[in-house]
Design brief:
The chain has 681 residues and is an alpha+beta fold. Helix content is 21%, strand content 29%. The protein contains eleven helices and 43 strands. α5 runs parallel beside α6 (445-467). The structure holds ligand MIG.
Length: 681
């Protein structure tokens, strides 16, 4: 094969077969296309080269096809597969696939009219038709104004039209508001567009979930591309077309596939305090005492990497934490839960039990068999120095991780924080040839990288659950992949302590909610740098209206507890945190809803006003609903007069009960101790 032009395009369909009442196979010269109906509103489309096998395994998808009425029709030119809600049409000559709304016939999404799928080496790309953005100059018609939203933990605007993103889990320290690769990979997006149904303008939404853990790229159309595309560096072209017509219903369907959060323990909805790091134990005691003395509600205190002996996971620094069991019990009596950080790296050190035992049990990521016919674990540098990395894609390793957790869960610890699980190594060069178990399938780092963090969170969550005697544990993770919501909360990593980054983080959490990451949050006050007092005043207020509410700051930064900025700020923090606690029943109900339908707690206005162009503009993208009825408008700390947008409806100002008509932009003056919050009439 010549490699200077190795592009292979999907060509015409030569044969079709009905494999089961919900599964259909179409064959071309170079590929197999398998279409499976998962539900009335979910269609799985898989396209592989002839020499590939269908890979039936997914870490992400947990539901199997459900029974529904399916009709299949074929003639010599095309085939049509329909449910009550969706109708898929495939033209044999071009292998062009179109998915329509079965009820009104609207095209939801289709392959590009130029190309469908192309392979270049192991890289596979799917080209999608962009809907007409404006009325056609000659043909006329109506522009559909398609917008693209999603991808979970991605910066930028809510509408990602015109942007390209790649997914490769990355330790993105001090990320900017337009960073590309972040800590997690969520290859799911929605297309939102206007159409005409029976003479009426209607806004419709569909979803695409590209379940592929290799490095992926999403291009949402640009000047140089007359189509949108998504691509993976390897693996299958396997994607789900998800119907439902509204963002809420599409998300519900996506989370039917990938799962929803478990109901977290109530204490984890309370206020949480962290820093890198609190030590020795007397500092933690002081912290706990100060919260109580100052009557600032707080439920959770964190131990970052300094609780360990030389950063070795599953150990304690005996000097600074001589009696961890007593510490945990004492804090419990004061009403606090402790959350411990876990890093994946296991220090290479004789006498360190997890290392010796791990080697014996062969739980680490290995290099493939060498020419000399032996394998050996990969070694990379992280906090403890040279480390091996548990292969969390192996059940044996997950069980071994659990054995190591036992001493901690027996102390009554229910909170575990998974960091560095992209996995991050200094130099960022985890070798691509390293081998992962991948539940018995064996995969290289290229395929396993993006799933590593989720499997670490899974190992931690499943073991914590089994060991906590019926109590609900709390797991926090930095890295993830679609479905990680099943295992715990996700936070946005190392943000920057600036006003603009605060707004960017609020939007980021809005965006994460659009991918089923219902329990998400940012470091309140910012991790990197020193936060200005007036910025902290706002940040703590928004934090109180965030699903996950935790203050955190970096090593060697100034104190950043709620009282560290003077009395005025302390009072602001106390008031907002108290307000969060008053809202706890409401918040807990929102979490319950998330367990049922995948809705986030922090909801972009898109969920209700996808058809309103205003919500995609400037600062309005940072506004959100906290639960069902509370509208929070994010504004910068460096101004006092702000323009905010009240969408259609009637809104009561939370501070003074003033009634406001919706569907208008208004100017508001916001003092230091307030943020604009409205309640739905
Ligand atoms: O290389 O554990 O994002 O929250 O405080 C830094 C120390 C490692 C990164 C996390 C941050 C945490 C820090 N960790």
């Amino acid at each position: 094969m010549r490699y200077d032009n190795d592009t292979i395009f999907l060509s015409k369909i030569q044969k079709h077969e009905v494999l089961a009442n919900n599964m259909f196979l179409f064959t071309t010269k170079e590929a197999n296309i398998r279409i499976t109906i998962f539900s009335e509103e979910i269609i799985e489309i898989r396209i592989i080269r002839k020499e590939q096998q269908f890979d039936e395994f997914s870490y992400s998808v947990i539901s199997s096809p459900e029974n529904c009425e399916i009709n299949f029709l074929a003639d010599k030119n095309s085939a049509e597969i329909s449910t009550g809600k969706l109708r898929l049409h495939i033209t044999f000559k071009t292998a062009h696939i179109v998915v329509r709304d079965a009820i009104d016939g609207t095209i939801l999404t289709e392959d590009s009219t130029d190309y469908s799928v192309a392979w270049q080496g192991s890289v596979v790309t799917n080209y999608r038709q962009l809907k007409p953005q404006k009325a056609h100059p000659h043909v006329g018609g109506q522009g559909e104004n398609e917008r693209f939203v999603g991808l979970g933990e991605k910066t930028g605007g809510i509408d990602k039209k015109g942007s390209t993103y790649t997914n490769w889990n990355t330790d993105q320290f001090a990320y900017s508001t337009d960073a590309n690769e972040m800590y997690g990979t969520y290859p799911f997006y929605m297309g939102v567009f206007d159409t005409n149904v029976g003479g009426k303008k209607v806004t419709k939404t569909y979803g695409i979930f590209f379940d592929n853990t290799y490095k992926t790229t999403f291009n949402f159309g640009s000047m140089s591309h007359p189509f949108s595309y998504f691509r993976a560096e390897g693996g299958e072209m396997k994607y789900f077309v998800i119907g439902g017509n509204t963002p809420k219903k599409v998300l519900q369907n996506y989370t039917q596939l990938t799962g929803r959060i478990n109901l977290p323990p109530v204490w984890s909805l309370g206020f949480q305090q962290c820093r890198y790091s609190y030590y020795p134990d007397t500092e933690i005691y002081n912290l706990a005492k100060t919260f109580r003395e100052k009557k600032i509600p707080c439920d959770v205190l964190y131990l970052d990497i300094h609780y360990m002996d030389k950063y070795k996971v599953f150990t304690w620094d005996k000097k600074n934490f001589p009696n961890p069991q007593k510490l945990v019990k004492d804090l419990e009596e004061l009403g606090f839960h402790v959350v411990l950080i876990f890093d994946p790296g296991i220090k290479v050190e004789n006498g360190y039990k997890p290392y010796e035992d791990g080697l014996k049990k062969d739980v680490f990521v290995n290099y493939p068999k060498s020419k000399q016919d032996f394998t050996f674990p990969y070694t990379g540098n992280v906090w403890p120095g040279a480390c091996h990395f548990p292969d969390f894609t192996n059940e044996k390793t997950r069980n071994w991780w659990g054995e190591n957790m036992k001493d901690l869960t027996e102390m009554g610890i229910l909170g575990f924080w998974n960091d560095m699980n992209e996995p991050a190594v200094w130099g960022k060069d985890f070798p691509d040839i390293t081998e992962f178990h991948y539940e018995g399938q064996t995969a290289s780092h290229r395929k396993a990288h993006n799933i590593y963090g989720m499997q670490m969170a899974r190992a931690t969550a499943e073991n914590a659950k089994n060991q906590s005697k019926g109590k609900r544990p709390f797991i926090l993770t930095r890295a993830g992949y679609s479905g990680v919501q099943r295992y715990g909360a996700v936070w946005t990593g190392d943000n920057v302590s600036e006003d603009n980054n605060m707004l960017g983080d609020i939007r980021l959490v809005n965006n994460m909610g659009l991918a089923g990451l219902s329990f998400a949050g940012y470091d309140i006050g910012g991790f990197v740098g020193e936060v200005q007092t007036k910025v902290f005043n706002k940040w703590i207020a928004y934090g109180a209206f965030s699903p996950f509410a935790r203050c955190h700051t970096m090593i060697n930064s100034k104190d950043a507890e709620p009282w560290a900025f003077g009395e005025e700020t302390e009072e602001i923090a106390r008031n907002f945190i108290n307000l969060r606690y008053r809202l706890l029943p409401y918040l807990y109900s929102a979490f319950y809803e998330a367990t049922q339908n995948g809705m986030p707690i922090q909801r972009s206005l898109l969920f209700e006003y996808a058809n309103d162009p205003k919500i995609y503009e400037g600062n309005y993208q940072n506004q959100y609903f906290f639960g069902q009825s509370i509208l929070v408008c994010a504004v910068t700390a460096n101004q006092s007069i702000h323009k905010i947008y009240l969408p259609k409806g009637t809104w009561y100002n939370m501070w003074n009960d003033e009634k406001n008509a919706g569907n208008q932009e208004i100017f508001v003056e916001i003092p230091q101790n307030k943020i604009p919050v409205y309640v739905r009439a």
